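hey can u check if this looks right to u? its 109 residues, i copy pasted from the old doc so theres a chance i mangled smth
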Amino acid sequence: MESSPASNGSIFQTTHGQGKEVTMTVYDIYPEVVGEVEGGSVLYLVQYSNDGDGKFAVVEAKENDKEIQKLMEQASTETLIDNPATLVGTQLQPLSKKMLTTNLEIIEL
């Protein structure tokens, strides 16, 4: 799914669904691809919350996704933390209440 600027979907960290459109506020992004997925997609690590030490998620997107590139530019100028961006995508895995670490989830742009 291509990312888009507006959404009627749920907020990422408040939904426990799977396969639903969600919006995610992004405060930072790791500047390199952290993994690859069959079919040509890649994985990026993003910070979606400033609570405590921050909460992080893995985002799946095409390697040259325009929204990801925009986030990278904002992160490199250190403007994302004060002016977070919003990503819209499909939540691929539900948040889990049973895991000790619940801040690593995947969404697809």
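The chain has a mean pLDDT of 76.
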